[in-house]
Each structure stands twice: as structure tokens, then as C-alpha cells.
């Protein structure tokens, strides 16, 4: 039963992570940006990512398959690598959101430059794109060895 509960919580957290990332992407396409809201949403994204990791580690430790299954599973390690890459890439939008919030606090008429918004949108898009192979690795991991 523990394994089922952890798996369910892990999936819910991952869906939350995807939803937060999608909302960031949508907000970056809005005609006007609210940097303070972006910072709050990005904090939700970050907190959800931490939750995904904590629950994932719990699954490895207390789940039904045990550490030996994960240690020898190349798809597990690929999934971890992709998640780490997404986390590292997410630092770039986070820093931009903080800069934009600070500038908006100093000047209420501030609007981020279009090229900066486009660049941040690209990074958020890359994060979303990397979720595809991550999810493929998760599916392959569960079925390994084939």
C-alpha cells in the first residue's frame, strides 16, 4: 500500500510541476507581464520540483521495487539527468523573473524588453520539451528490463 500511495503522490506532484510550467509559458505569452506573479508562480514550480524529488526518493527507499532495481536501471539515471537539466535550465527564467520584479518595483511602468521575454520563453519551452524524454524514460524505467 505504501508503494501505491507514494506512486500516486509522485504522479500528482509531476502533474503539478507540468501545470506550473505550462502556466509560466502562458504568462510569458500574455500581452502584459506581471513580474511579481511570475515570481510567485516560479516559486510554486520550484516547490513542486522539490516535492517531486522528495517523493521520488521516498519511492526509492520505501517503495516496492527497492534500491537495487533503480541502481541498475539506465532509464532511472537518464530520468534523473533530465530532471537535473530541467532544474539547471530553470535557474535562468527564475533570475530573469527576479530582475523584472525588482525593476517593476522601482518603476511601475517597467515592461521587460521583448527580446528578454523571448529568450526566457525559449528556456521555459526547452524545460517543457525535456519533459517528453523524461516521461519516456519513466515509462521505460517501469518496464526495465524489457
Overall description:
With 146 residues, the protein is an all-alpha fold. The chain has five helices and no strands. Helix 1 packs antiparallel against helix 5. The longest helix has 33 residues. The radius of gyration is 18 Å and the shape is elongated.
CA radius of gyration is: 18 Å
Question: Can you write the helix and strand succession as a string?
Answer: HHHHH
Which structural class fits the helix and strand makeup?
mainly alpha
Largest sheet: none
Q: Give the strand tally.
A: 0
Give the N-terminus to C-terminus distance in angstroms.
25 Å
Shape: elongated
Low-confidence stretches: none
Please, how many helices?
5
Domain count: 1
Tell me what portion of residues adopts beta-strand conformation.
under 5%
- Helix amount, in percent? over 70%
Average pLDDT metric: 97
Summarize the SSE layout with pairings.
Elements: H1 2-27, H2 35-62, H3 66-71, H4 74-106, H5 114-143
Helix pairs in contact: 1-2, 1-5, 2-4, 4-5
Summarize the entry for a quick read.
The protein is an all-alpha fold. It contains five helices and no strands.
Amino acid at each position: 500500500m505504501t508503494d501505491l500511495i507514494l506512486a500516486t503522490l509522485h504522479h500528482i506532484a509531476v502533474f503539478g510541476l507540468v501545470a506550473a510550467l505550462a502556466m509560466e509559458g502562458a504568462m510569458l505569452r500574455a500581452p502584459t507581464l506581471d513580474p511579481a506573479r511570475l515570481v510567485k508562480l516560479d516559486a510554486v514550480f520550484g516547490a513542486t520540483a522539490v516535492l517531486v524529488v522528495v517523493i521520488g526518493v521516498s519511492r526509492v527507499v520505501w517503495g516496492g521495487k527497492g534500491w537495487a532495481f533503480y541502481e541498475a536501471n539506465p532509464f532511472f539515471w537518464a530520468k534523473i539527468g533530465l530532471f537535473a537539466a530541467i532544474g539547471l535550465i530553470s535557474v535562468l527564467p527564475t533570475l530573469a523573473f527576479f530582475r523584472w520584479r525588482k525593476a517593476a518595483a522601482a518603476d511601475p511602468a517597467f515592461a521587460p524588453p521583448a527580446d528578454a521575454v523571448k529568450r526566457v520563453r525559449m528556456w521555459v519551452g526547452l524545460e517543457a520539451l525535456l519533459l517528453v524524454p523524461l516521461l519516456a524514460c519513466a515509462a521505460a524505467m517501469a518496464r526495465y528490463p524489457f
